[in-house]
Amino acid sequence: MKAAIFRGPGAVEVGERPDPVIQEPADAVVRVVLGCVCGSDLWYYRGESPHAAGSIGHEFIGIIEQAGADVRGISPGELVVAPFIYSDMTCPHCLNGSTISCPAGGGFGDGVIDGGRGEAVRVPLAGSTLVPVPGTGHPDAVLKSLLALSDVMSTGHHAAVMAGVKKGDTVAVVGDGAVGLCAVLASRRLGAERIIALSRHPARQQTAREFGATDIVEARGEEPVQAVLDLTGGIGADAALECVGTEQSIATAFAVARPGSTVGIVGVPHGQVPFTATFFRNTGWRGGPAPARIYIPELLGDVLDGASTPAASSITRPTWTTSPTPTGPWTSGGPSSHSCGWDHCDGYQRNRPAEPRRAVPRSRLDPEGDRPGADRGLRQLRLRRSARPEQPGHQDPAHGAARGAHRLPGAQ
After folding, report:
1. Measuring CA to CA, which residue among 90, 250, 43 is closest to residue 159?
2. Domain 2-151+291-386 superfamily per CATH
């Protein structure tokens, strides 16, 4: 099959990889419908983060072509969203919200495991990892927003959850890439009253406003700190969301957060984290890689209802050809962006049933489920969290997902 292949810093090519096959009973093979370029991929491309040569790309949605004997809850022909890591959803780490720490888990596109920017992917632990999409006949715009749930929207949501965003808050979002824009959307979803987006790009400013930003701060360096303080009467934001990962962006996020608040950090850190200064302001931070598998079922309903359109966070669209040198953000040298890349959407549209889109009742998005691995883990996580006091405006992220009705003609 054809796939994007990482050769080293500055070298990503379209080449050939072996067609994926079932290797373990818990595997599934997914035909990619849409895949994404992530900002973290640009760190690899620039040589600022290590990455093994081989497969690349960890965000995709697709149709299940084959399922191993131990896979439950999903079957060939269904449309699924793949979180950017696979996990068993039953280990203590998964049950406590850190799916990236799952001892049995791993990441897609790590050089060995198939990446989302290829024609197909072998998905380990498929029954507990993949989230089926209810309904049929979803248009392109919905498919692209479903794709955003695989990482970027879940990560923006994670920033807001980690910072404790709640109804009535003033939130400052540092970073206007796809994650930052989705953090704006997530903050609005959680009830923030005022959302200050730090952005210098007019197109992204427009998207930020559409997503719920009430104020735009264009400056960089020390200037945005004073601007945010001026907007908040010298107090600072109730929650700051750091969505870039550079030393400057992290410092800015801590500086604009009011004393006693929490900064949600989801940008992969590059540089020094300023703990000394934050210690004396009682400002804490929480964050890390998002547990997307936990968040996707919760966010899925808003996309299917049309209440959330995170696909609008995609700024540019790379073009993949048979040329060994892809175009788009790999060669732009501009700010990192999250874009639809390896696009099999047209083929999906041609092959899917030509029936009208059906609405999906909310109740179908939170069943008890028949997925022994994933749903049992999610239910246990739900029980654990139900014993804790919830913050106002927060919705428990551990929702199960119904089996999808999305099948291709002739699928068994």
Report:
1. 250
2. Medium-chain alcohol dehydrogenases, catalytic domain (3.90.180.10)
d(CA 262, CA 164): 7
116 contacts 30 by C-beta, under 8 angstroms = no
pLDDT higher at 272 or 379: 272
Percent of the chain at pLDDT exceeding 70: 74
3-state SS of the chain is CEEEEEEECCEEEEEECCCCCCCCCCCEEEEEEEEEECHHHHHHHHCCCCCCCEECCCCEEEEEEEECCCCCCCCCCCEEEECCEECCCCCHHHHCCCHHHCCCCEECCCCCCCCCCECEEEECCHHHHCEECCCCCCCHHHHHHHHHHCCHHHHHHHHHHHCCCCCCCEEEEECCCHHHHHHHHHHHHCCCCEEEEECCCHHHHHHHHHHCCCEEECCCCCHHHHHHHHHCCCCCEEEEEECCCEHHHHHHHHHHEEEEEEEEECCCCECCCCHHHHHCCCCEEEECCCCHHHHHHHHHHHHHHCCCCHHHHCCCCCCCCCCCCCCCHHHHCCCCCCEEEEECHHHHHHHCCCCCCCCCCHHHHCCCCCCCCHHHHHHHHHHHHHCCCCCCCCCCCCCCCCCCCCCCCCCC
Per-residue pLDDT reduced to its tens digit, 181-208: 999 999 999 999 999 999 999 999 999 9
Give the Cα-Cα-Cα angle 330, 335, 339 (nearest 5 degrees): 55
As a whole number of angstroms, the longest Cα–Cα distance in the chain is 64
- 161-287 CATH, one of 3.30.70.1350, 3.40.50.720, 3.30.110.40, 1.10.3720.10: 3.40.50.720
Q: Is beta strand 215-217 parallel, antiparallel or unpaired with respect to 194-198?
A: parallel
**Of 332 and 223, more confident:** 223
Is this structure's pTM higher than 0.85? no
Q: Whole-angstrom Cα distance, residue 164 to residue 263?
A: 9
Which pair of structure tokens corresponds to residue 43? 């760190």
Q: Is 100 left (phi over 0), alpha (psi -120 to 50) or beta?
A: alpha
138-147, 218-227, 276-285: which range is least confident on average? 276-285
- CA triplet 212, 216, 219: central angle to 5 degrees? 150
The full set of domain ranges for the chain reads 2-151+291-386, 161-287
